[in-house]
Amino acid sequence: MTTVGIDLISFYTPQYFLDLKTLAEKRGVDFNKFYTGLGQEKMAIPPPDEDIVTMAASAARPILDQTDPSEIELLLFGTESGVDQSKAAAMFAHGLLKLPTRCRGFEVKEACYAGTAALQLAIPWALRNPGKKALILASDIARYDLNSPGEPTQGAGAIAMLVGVNPRIMAIEPESGLYASDVMDFWRPNYRDEAVVDGKYSMRVYIAALEEAWRQYHALSGRGLADMARFCYHLPFTKMAEKAHVRLAKTAGVANLSPEDMEHQMGESLHYNRITGNTYAASLYEGLCSLLDNCTKDLAGKRVALFSYGSGCMGEFFSGILQADYRKHLYSAAHKNLLDNRTELTYQQYEDVFQLGCPTDGGDHTFAQYRTGVYRMKGISQHKRLYEALT
Ligand code: HMG
């Protein structure tokens, strides 16, 4: 039987971070509110010469290094921090990655659900084009107002996934539970750089979406919680996923989950998010990378449950089966190297970067070079973003 799904998956996050202890001290709150209450320890901060395009291209580079670019005929870019109202971030990435002109590329938007929207669009396409691959990019910079409740849940990062038939990492199963509803829990009007959020309400809608999506998935597939080896959730902050998992278990008839059950079922998927913060469209797949990189047990042949949530709102519960030898195709060492070698910022450096903004005067601006991935934004000229490859 032909399977379809994630053939390769790679994660990238900026090389600077702010420790939430530093933020807590500045804001006059007990750091345990962030470390324990939200389950977050650090948030990734992109330097001024890095944006969603450079992060996504840096995530994709390892995949391109072992893929024939002429196989890639679909390029989907999921983001809610788009850099242009008209031109898709996919086209900037297409240029940086030197993909062939025979390629269909566009941007996908529905808040943090955009990465899943792109993945699910690519699956029937891949079945129809079995000799070809889709490249899915999901990249975001999570920004809230300074000194707002959302501030400690900021973050940044990108995922790149190659999608095709007979995948090496994970075959995606056909059943999906879906939940779409027109709500205002979190949004970002075009004139704002920072999201507006009704935080507590957003948490309730996330849970409502999960419960309904699960019920549908269960009815369609006949599967229960015991059929899942691990669970990965959309991760605005890790405590949200823990709350969601407890609720899911109750909905599915499991009254009491022990701390050991929780750790076993989802613990490994939380490591990366805890030290990068919310990566919006990338976050579910960052969680999947965290699980695959950190799980010492071989999960080949096992099912992983995936819950994607995007404010506004859209939820989807689906699942995938890890493939034989999937561990041979992970970028675990590169992810570890990236996360272990980041530079900590002071509070003032964080605020200076936050306040910088992008020049909007149409003049010529050259950006200083900071530590980035293999791509950077070198400047802006006549309202055009100028990118460069560093290798
Ligand atoms: P808040 O209201 O300032 O925090 O902001 P709080 O007072 O609710 O405290 C948070 C937790 O810390 C609580 O735990 C406190 O008890 C605990 P809980 O009761 O909920 O279990 N706490 C402490 N724990 C230990 N030691 C202490 C201490 N003090 C307090 N000393 C909020 C929290 C999440 C509302 C805020 O950060 C926010 O608005 N974040 C952004 C919105 C968000 O992330 N929503 C999640 C669901 S929506 C979603 O996932 C979509 C999204 O990713 C975007 C998209 O889709 O596009 C956001």
What is the overall pLDDT average? 97
Please give the alpha-carbon distance between the first and last residues: 41 Å
Per DSSP, the total helix count is 12
Query: Beta-strand percentage?
Result: 25-35%
Poorly predicted tracts of residues: none
User: Rg to the nearest angstrom?
Assistant: 20 Å
Ligand list: 3-hydroxy-3-methylglutaryl-coenzyme A
- Sheet/helix structural class: alpha+beta
Assign a percent range to the helix content.
25-40%
Largest sheet, described in full? Answer: 10 strands, mixed
Shape: globular
Instruction: Count all strands and give the number.
Output: 18
Q: Please provide the ordered H/E string of secondary-structure elements.
A: EEHHEHEHEHEEEEEEHEHHHHEEHEHEEE
Structure characterization notes:
The strands form 4 sheets. Strands 1, 4, 5, 6, 7, 8, 9, 12, 13 and 14 form a 10-stranded mixed beta sheet that branches. The protein has a 3-stranded mixed beta sheet with strand order 3-2-15. Strands 16-17-18 form a 3-stranded antiparallel beta sheet. Helix 1 (about 20-25) crosses helix 2 and helix 3 (about 50-65) packs across helix 4. It is α+β, with helices and mostly antiparallel strands. The mean pLDDT is about 95. The chain has helices spanning about 20-25, 30-40, 50-65, 90-95, 115-130, 200-220, 240-250, 260-265, 270-275, 285-295, 330-340, 345-355; strands at about 5-10, 15-20, 40-45, 70-80, 105-110, 135-140, 155-165, 170, 175-180, 185, 195, 230-235, 305-310, 315-320, 345, 365, 375-380, 385-390. Strand 10 and strand 11 form a beta hairpin. It has 12 helices and 18 strands.
